[in-house]
Amino acid sequence: MALRAGVSESTASRVMSASRPVGRETAARVRRAANELGYTGNSIARALRKSRTDTVGMVVPSILNPFFTGLVDSMERALHAEGKQLFLCDSRQDPEIEAEQLQSLLQRQVDGIVISACDQTRSLPALRAAADLTPLVQLDRRVDFPGADWIGVDDDEAMRLVLEFLHRSGVRSAAFVSSAMTNSSTSERLAGFRRHTERLGMEVREGWIVLRDYSIESGELAGQSLLDGRGPRPQSVVCADDLIAIGVLRACRRLGVRVPDQLQVTGFDDITFADYVVPSLTSVAQPTDRMASEALHLLQVASSRQPEDAGTRISLAPRLVLRETTAAAARRDHGEERR
Amino acid sequence: MALRAGVSESTASRVMSASRPVGRETAARVRRAANELGYTGNSIARALRKSRTDTVGMVVPSILNPFFTGLVDSMERALHAEGKQLFLCDSRQDPEIEAEQLQSLLQRQVDGIVISACDQTRSLPALRAAADLTPLVQLDRRVDFPGADWIGVDDDEAMRLVLEFLHRSGVRSAAFVSSAMTNSSTSERLAGFRRHTERLGMEVREGWIVLRDYSIESGELAGQSLLDGRGPRPQSVVCADDLIAIGVLRACRRLGVRVPDQLQVTGFDDITFADYVVPSLTSVAQPTDRMASEALHLLQVASSRQPEDAGTRISLAPRLVLRETTAAAARRDHGEERR
DNA sequence: ATGAAAGCGCTAACAT
DNA sequence: ATGTTAGCGCTTTCAT
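YS: structure for the whole thing
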């Protein structure tokens, strides 16, 4: 290409990357030559030389879970805006596959890794190791270790929004359904649930805490056990995920429990379908676009940081989206929104 | 690393890539050294040398559309099984963004590109250009040009399954709802719809063909215009996509049209939520796993092919999944399945 | 079976 | 403002 333009390799490089001033006419000649040859540069060679690939790896527990689909979409947009590419990895909720994916991303010299780890304890070793070698920030689910960077939603605040709203609309008892306690989302949401129900004087029985999976099937089973009439029924079911809540709604329909009259139900994540199920689902929205852009920002900061520095934790404000599975409240409050 | 093991760089390379026989003891020493140093190789350097990156780029119109989410998931699995990584790109239904994404993937020297192009005509130039430079196979939506490789479902056969089933259950008229005619899925499904309704003697009025977008909102609007009582009503609505069908179902609910008693509705793609809407949606399932593995196979074949060779087209068999939005048929047939 | 040396395509000193 | 040169980390001849 340089030959075609009649200049040296380095001049051509300078034109293509605009890294140094080049004579206007020379530059034009180079650009023309590049166009004629359809030359666009080889980013592999550039990456080798600059030890920067302009790629980011992302690892999620399941791309099929609509919340993560949304997060992936947000990341893809944010990266595209910066001219970077996204390596997408699905760990299938398996820490071993997750470790392989991390290994592969490191080997490919990604500029950073964004991950929602699948297991609070079993994901730890691979995660730490990866974080030692490259900028790494966790999204949503968190695994704690010294220096860990994390961005997510304030789960305690989310539970406060949900429970205060329910309380104001007259609800005095609540059940909680989530996945097993192997991830931070479940533990922090449960902690928030416990704290705020107690503070508000709402009744919670131990049989009303049901921990299974983040899935519709799971939610349906949980709903069934909660509503089968063999024990006292709560006035509301707070779910740690919209899929679970949709499952609970199915159980309600099957068992003839009227929502929201006999039972109020809330979800979490505000996935697209929350607005389309019947009755439509009240949920807590997470600011995924914001999470993605903060994550990219943190990756850049992390590149120029000392290893002994403390990790950064960014808790973003959740937003309560009111729909038909909850009754109208006595009065409105901050952070709520009726659609 | 080679130093640490006390061998030459080339010997170390031979051990790590198992490219040539190496003395057992030497090999062991190299492996130990690699372990101790946590050395795993630099795939950028390898890629530069071998001009093979073990990466595949995938471009879809919208990752948020559940059908493409499923396709991405299938591709990710298939690639992981072969030790390759996936560059995920979302073209946001925009041919210009799509062209940028293709350009970026080419520059990154991907081993192949898998794409579902967003626009039958406006995607063509960039697609052709990319296909000239690297193996490229189209999935689902097709753009025609000489030598184009494509894998998808047999849309005519899908329409045959749907319409013959409806006909057997007594339906004698049908409407069709899809996106605008800017992609092959719509045109081929519509062609199949026309052919089979005619063959079976089913009534189709021109006002019953509604073309908008692949979205729930769109489907709801289409449903509304079809059912608002201002014209004759079809006995069934065949949708080119599950999102559209879900929208039509919402319109039915709002207008008090009972499904399937007064109106039968079918979707396309068999997304997860098809099973969870009420009433649950009869749909045509696409074999996404099969599509992904065939796509990877084609990419490999394409790498060692002459430019003047004709393109390969693989039409896979669709599968009709019967649920509650269609009435029970008089009798069962091949290719159908009740869940 | 092992080592020495060249080179993939690029960029960043270092000249001029 | 432009050219010359070295080298990123690997694989692959070509020797031995």
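YS: worth flagging: Confidence is low (pLDDT under 50) at residues 330-335 of chain A.
IM: good catch. Also The longest strand of chain A covers residues 55-60.
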